[in-house]
From TrEMBL:
Enzyme Commission no: 5.1.3.2
Domain NAD(P)-binding, chain residue ranges per copy: 5-307
Gene: galE
Pathway the protein contributes to: Carbohydrate metabolism; galactose metabolism
Keyword Isomerase tagged: yes
Protein source organism: Thermovenabulum gondwanense
Protein name per Swiss-Prot or TrEMBL: UDP-glucose 4-epimerase
Length: 327
């Protein structure tokens, strides 16, 4: 069975991918500095505690493991923080990715799966967003990822290297078996905030902005279940191992929900009419981000299983209850 080196595999999305890799029999090594990840989220394979910015340790770990492919999740992910501390993001996300790519070259690994983001598109006028739309990120986080995509294109052109760049839209939910989920205390994502408020871990939910040019004035997003996204990684891995050419693919369902629709659904699913307060817009939020999800279905034959907002919220809620006071 193929061997997969997973950076950031102790984090929210990486740990779900590792669970699926393990269940499917892949050999896994997780390389993570545990800055936001959790060792208890790594259900399969070995966990190497290390930082991708420490090139020698990274290279040794990769050389020892001899992977067939690398999945690269490790990154800093908070947009407002990236505006305040851009160097932190260019260092961790861009220079960090270069270290991973250099270690791959030294080890002779040719297959790479990259965690990209819808943030590389900025605020496109047309919806849904296709992969060939121009890259126009509006914050350092998005730019730190867009730079990596440019590097990947050049590497692939130079030969002997193939990649799949997965541009995630809004990732949410938790493992339906309830073994793992989001653990970060300072998580900011809408569905996590809704279920934490429903559990009484937060006093109220803030809705940021009610004057957007959308049907109810709140922002629209394409929410994808984290396990469907994990499955997209397995499909991308199989595709590369079978010799597929480099591709850039959106990861979403191709439909959007407004913030108010999510909040109402969360109240219904949890059965709790939690308090909501309307606030000013959050800086940098685009009004609408919805993926055109046709390409990933065509190229990878990806068939999502959990395209259901109520199920996404339900799995997040079950996980939050299980976490108890830890979040
Ligand atoms: N969560 C989303 O909605 C979303 C959307 C688009 C893209 N992404 C991308 O998905 C990836 C995973 O995001 P997540 O939500 O699971 O975040 P996360 O913070 O839960 O996971 C990131 C993991 O990387 C590790 N890490 C960070 N810097 C590291 C370093 N220098 N060396 C080693 N390990 C390091 C952390 O400890 C953590 O385990 C990121 O690349 C992120 O940019 C996430
Ligand atoms: O407590 C909250 C949290 C969020 N929101 C709103 O909910 C929407 C979604 O916000 P959030 O869940 O924080 O996700 P995004 O800011 O859309 O960003 C996520 O989704 C993007 C893709 O769509 C990715 O690029 C990013 O990496 C990822 O963090 C936005 O309109 C927010 O203003 C609230 O109103 N209240």
């Amino acid at each position: 069975m193929a061997r997969v080196f997973v950076t950031g595999g102790a984090g929210y999305i990486g740990s779900h991918a590792v669970k699926l890799l393990g269940e499917k029999g892949f050999e896994v090594a997780v390389f993570d500095n545990l800055s936001t990840g959790n060792s208890s989220s790594v259900l399969y394979g070995m966990l190497i505690k290390g930082d991708i910015l420490d090139y020698e340790t990274l290279k040794k770990a990769m050389m020892d493991f001899k992977p067939d492919a690398v999945m690269h999740f490790a990154a800093k992910i908070i947009v407002p923080e990236s505006v305040e501390k851009p160097l932190l993001y260019y260092e961790n996300n861009t220079a960090g990715a270069i270290n991973v790519l250099k270690a791959m070259r030294e080890t002779g690994v040719k297959n790479f799966i990259f965690s990209s983001t819808a943030a590389v598109y900025g605020q496109p006028e047309k919806m849904p967003i296709k992969e060939d739309f121009p890259l126009s990120p509006i914050n350092p986080y998005g730019r730190s990822k867009a730079f990596v995509e440019t590097i990947l294109k050049d590497l692939s052109f130079a030969g002997d290297f193939s990649y799949v760049s997965l541009r995630y839209f809004n990732v949410a939910g938790a493992d339906p078996e309830g073994k793992i989920g989001e653990t970060k205390k300072d998580a900011t994502h809408l569905i996590t905030m809704c279920v934490r408020t429903a559990c009484g871990k937060r006093d109220k939910l803030f809705v940021f902005g009610t004057d957007y040019p959308t049907k109810d004035g709140t922002c629209i997003r394409d929410y994808i279940h984290v396990m469907d996204l994990a499955e997209a990684h397995i499909k991308a891995l199989d595709y590369l191992l079978e010799g597929g050419k480099s591709e850039i693919l959106n990861c979403g369902y191709g439909r959007g929900f407004s913030v108010l629709e999510v909040v109402n659904e969360a109240k219904k699913v949890t059965g709790i009419d939690f308090p909501v307060e309307y606030r000013e817009r959050r800086p940098g939020d685009p009004a609408r981000l919805v993926a055109d999800a046709e390409k990933i279905k065509r190229v990878l034959n990806w068939v999502p299983k959990y395209d259901d907002l109520s199920f996404i919220i339900k799995t997040a809620f079950e996980w939050e209850k299980k976490l108890g006071s830890q979040s």
